[in-house]
Amino acid sequence: MTSPSRLWIPIAIADVLLILVFAAIGRDAHARGDIVSGAFITAWPFLTGAALAWLAARAWRTPLAVWPTGVLVWISAVLLGMLLRAVTGQTVVLPFVIVAFITLGIFLLGYRAVTALWLRISRRRQRRA
């Protein structure tokens, strides 16, 4: 069985993909032109915030931990993402902040919780066998 700390690359990729999905859904919902390139334009501040949290929290050590890793990645993605959007002239309005906060929380914490639970259950099954 692979330990959670050895899963940091796929977990980092999952964070990136989920942030891109968040941005693409938003672009599509608001009919903002090209979804693919537009998603990268929308997502880069959130990706930067998440990447900085990965470094600050040394998330590769416990990448599946909802607390503190997941929470730090989520909060940093939203807070730093919104700050970077503001300083680069992108839209930052309260409804968008709320949607980003909730959606990225569900995305970035949800898959960590489900994956950690799945790994825990599979380990128990292996011990019983």
Radius of gyration: 16 Å
DSSP summary: helix tally: 4
**Class per helix and strand makeup:** mainly alpha
CA-CA gap between termini: 14 Å
Question: Overview of this structure, please?
Answer:
The chain is an all-alpha fold and 129 residues long. Helices cover 79% and strands 0% of the residues. It is built from four helices and no strands. Helix 1 packs antiparallel against helix 4 (94-128). The chain has helices spanning 8-29, 35-57, 66-87, 94-128.
List the main descriptive attributes of the protein structure presented here.
single chain, 129 residues, mainly alpha, 4 helices, 79% helix, elongated
Write the layout of secondary structure elements.
Blueprint: H1 8-29, H2 35-57, H3 66-87, H4 94-128
Short summary:
This protein has 129 residues and is mostly helical.
